[in-house]
Structures
1.
Amino acid sequence: MALHWLLALMILASLGVGLYMTGLPFSPQRLQLYNWHKWAGVTILVLSALRLLWRLTHRPPASLPMPAWQQRASHMAHAALYALFLAVPLAGWAYSSAAGFPVVLFGVLPLPDFVAPDRALSEVLKPVHRWLAYALAAVIVLHVAAALKHHFVDRDGLLLRMMPARRRVAVPMQPIRS
């Protein structure tokens, strides 16, 4: 659950920064945002791999009763999310490498080039990264819409299962003495 919400925040922030930074003129701010975007992408890639490993070694909770088509749609959406969690940052890393811009994680750890510098390849990978990110955003919108539908229409508790547990402190009742 913690990985779900951490990845959700990081992915939404990275999508937002990605959209914003591409519209900026060349400047130190734009370069800094590109670096932050790359750092977030590598972190998302690592956390996504950990989340996938967790999912492969831990069974998900039993699914709620729902029509078969909804179960299939849920499985397809989750598979698409996991695939895109990995594909978007890998495509971004490949684009950055092909364009000749190294990824230096947090400004201190240079990562190896994912592909050799190649201007023609970078021109292909740039829109691939962008369109994969748009696809990820679209699947996220569907995922959120489905969760809200389960919460507000079906009222089946599905969304509440993904919320952090609220600790309730029981206050013992004291008998009234007269």
2.
Amino acid sequence: MAKTKNKVVPNEINLNFSNIGNRNDVRKRVIDKFLEEIPGHGKGGAQSKYLYYVETLKSGKRIYLERPANLHNGFDFVVNVEDGEFLTKKGLKKHYPAHHHIFEDLEKKKVESRSKYEQLYELITNVYNCRTEAIDKNLKFNSGYDVDLILKVIKWFFIEQDIRYWNYSGRAMFMSGVPKP
């Protein structure tokens, strides 16, 4: 890890994590990788930082996890979309979606086509239950983000919630916000 004028150049790692199994299997695969990180030695450029490129979208853009997260809490991470633009409530552009971006997008898709949304909801449910990878089955909507992006971001929101809130409801917290068909 290089250091330039108190700025840390992150370690960049390309990885694939399977979503098949159960919540604990998936969570452990990710945590085991995080345990390989080299610890930092303080602040001001002495900390360690990692970018894990974990998904490639059909557009060629990648989804990556940034560690440590903004709050620097344990195994927490931020889910980013390469060159993604997600507006904050103050109108600032960020590379990371918030939960509300996904929920609002899903509501738009539901209004656009209830039958296609039912198919999308089934795909989300299969990812939630760790039955499948986040594959869009060529499902397309005219509104919002590509289904490919939605499913892969949701996969990582589920994993993040399982790591952060394991002793509570984990991924169920995010799933409870997904609009039902």
3.
Amino acid sequence: MGLVSLALFSSCSSSAFVVKESRVIPEDFAGMVHAGNTRTDEEYALLNNMGVSWILATFYWGSIEPQQGVWNFSNYDSYVDRAKQDGKKIIAVLAYDTPWMYSEEDKKKPNPHIRPKDIPKYLNFVEATVLRYRDKVDVWSVWNEPNIARFWKGSKQDFIVLTKAAIQKIRELAPEATILAGAFSGLPTIPFVSESYVGYVKALFESGAMEQANGIAFHPYSTNPQGTAALYDSLVKLVTPYGFQDNIWITEVGYPTHGLYPSRVSEEKQPAYVIQTMCTLAARGARVICWYEMFDKYNQEDKRTADSEHYFGLLYPNYEPKQGAAAYGLVSRYIGGMTYQPQSLSRDGVPSSIVTYYFEGENNRATLIIWKNSGKQTLRLSLPGTGHVLHDAVTGAAHTLEPQTTLAIGTMPSIITWTMNGDSPSISN
């Protein structure tokens, strides 16, 4: 993920946070990064229970072609076969260099960077991998976070040349494939660490590299969900002139629960951030939202390090869920396949600090997700219909609720589901 530092995207008003237009949420919008690697029934049971449709993995060139012309697909064969066994859709990131491509002199220079003269070698890897998995991998994504120095130390132009050639190669081999470009980090310019994604995005489109792509991959990492929403909105504005505003895939987003990153959030607050982030990105039109990531590196009782990269997970390595795991499952289960309908919820005297995301679906299903940006406030809820359930964001536990009720709304989102009877719901002060 390469989040070495982070600007504080913390200012975003609640009115800007809320989306005003209706939006159909894809049934399979929920994804997970670094999931499925254990191949165990236990992990896949968790993925199924959490409503994960997509899993994302990096297909490392160095692992697949450890020596020039010597191919080793055994690890990815078992990964892909296990995922397909449980009906998971796969996003395969074709990335990084391989040691044999460098001379001894090259190895003294900053890497990774595939120079234009080495692109044919990379394309051999792309061809071999796509031919092997084109009937099983659902989406191909070219590279990862090139605007982060950890992942790309070459020039912007060299990356554009690489991307264009890779997309063309994939399209030749798999004409119906879904292809993503970019996977840009939302980090701003940080000297020697990162460069703004803006210049990369413009260069991709202006070069014609995106003409055969289906979508742009983005990682809107921020210190809070409001900042994440603001980053997404900025990308929408950037790609709208190119007609790609509805073709944005969030292939990483998340917050660590330990370490030194300024985006760190307490585990107690993790469920709120999961719900708010997934709601706002889905309502804004993200095709898929892949949470970063499935597992922490250490169990809860283990000695911790200061590296936040180890603590983005929703579960511990021993499969024990962190507090955000149930929240992810609730959102994926109760807004996937629904239509976001902000105009169908009446708000009478409710302040803007109360954030609501209201969804309607087939068979008169309804979901209301509501929270207050700070403090608490008791509201009157009128939710005509039957079968009202209040879902606990931390545990996932279900509690029955009356159609006419009062509810204390706080910073931890309340998730309410029910079957409508045709009348519109309302909340009032």
